[in-house]
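Batch job 17 of 40 flagged for manual review because the log was empty.
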Amino acid sequence: MPALVEMLSGAEVLEDGFALAITPDWQQGRTAYGGLTSALAVEAARRVLPEPLPLRSAQFSMISPLVGRIEARAKIVRAGRNAVWVTAELVGEKGTGFLANCVFMHPRESVLALGGYALPDGLVPLEDAPVFETKVLPAFMQMHFDVRVAVPADRLQEADLCWWVRVREREGLDADVEAVLLGDALPPAVLPHLPPRTPVSSMQWHVNMLNTAARPRDGWWLIRSTSRQSGHGLASEDILQWGEGGTPAVAGMQSVAVFA
């Protein structure tokens, strides 16, 4: 039951990446948990940078199941004066299963500052938030994450979830890798409204890193997933993450296939 930091420390070094085994405790259905594969892609991308740079935006494509031994490789597409574009690929025994396009860039002074992501109404402070009932969580969540209810269902919208989430083994993880690892932890917000055991699958996930210094010191991130539109086999999900002191940290959007 290795944590991500253990998997990375024991990974086989390749010329342009690394190889490791995704163990069954990280699986979500037929494939690895999407936050894990996204985090592996970001880590691979980080390792080819000419200098340490924070992740500012990324597009993740979840193409086919990845389990067992995988290879994570990355290459620089363009290195400009301010930003570096990197692609990363995860390959399993059946070929490419995951692609990522990442942009890394130092923060810059801006003449405009807008704060558009307020904390949710009805938020329960972490110290008062009830622990999530583990038996309803998938196995990988039970083994690697702590979860608390941040906003009760009766204070949320129709297809809306809001949790406090913490990865148990975070020491040694890069802040961006940690944020991405946690960002996909909530199930699709439409799931409670579907018939039991309806298959769903994330296809694309775009993230914008809003604040490079928002990593919470105690490890607890606030994450909200909201579906504003669902139909024709596709749900569109907005995923927001807040970090230290309620600072907006990550704004994301995900497309989810719904097989019902």
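Reviewer: the log was empty due to a logging misconfiguration, but the result itself is present. The longest helix spans residues 34-46. Unflagging and moving on to job 18.
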